[in-house]
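Team,

Forwarding the record for the chain on the shared tracking sheet. I've put the sequence and predicted structure together so nobody has to dig through attachments.
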Amino acid sequence: MALTSLIKGVVLLAISAFSTSLHANTSSIIVQSTTSTANSGLYDHLLPMFQDDTGIVANIVAVGTGQAIRNARNCDADVLLVHAKAAEEQFVLDGFGIARKDLMYNDFIVVGPSTDPANVKGEQDIIIALTKIANGESTFASRGDDSGTHKKELALWAEAKIDVEAASGGWYRETGSGMGATLNVGVGMGAYVLTDRATWISFSNKGSHDVLVEGGAELFNQYGIIQVHPEACPNVNQIAGEMFVEWLLSEVGQNAIAEHQIDGQQLFFPNATP
């Protein structure tokens, strides 16, 4: 009799543990995301609203876009939110994502010391600005981390026909770090830095650095959102992931993105297709 009671107790504990685990799994998701969205405070603004509306907890892993995509390919994600469109589309083509959708945008800018040794202040053509920086061998700090910002930067150097690999360790310095850390290095070294505007607005250690180059179509910065495909990753939380994507793409989510400001400045501009 005692043995029977013991067995029943063990079974009940197992069922309870399984139920708790299942509940936790269905009420939370992992979002692999960029550092810019996290550092800007966007998730601190959005996620409480999302949780209130759905009861789902979104856990953010903030890394560079390249690492975020690799993590999602390893099935360590339910949703991917990054800003490197070609890599995002390849992720979907390779079967890891259900679909890629535009979510929001802002822009890239070049910040640098107020002394502006390369004389790029007010220049709207980023290619001309980068050429001036390279020709004058003015110090430039790069993330060098395969992030969305780094991918964009390398594409711009290539368009300017500047071989930054040859300049590495000289006037061109690679930090291998996130945007905030790279900005800290740039300010400390008096270097020019390509950054997304949201991170710069929320960055507190600006020192004597100013926004020197902005505007122009080349500096457009689009963010996309992708639900990880359950056929590639069977353990993905498909229902909760879909709810997160649809909430952000909805009028409620898009309005919430637009409402996020720092010192009266809007950081991201929603542009999801209705």
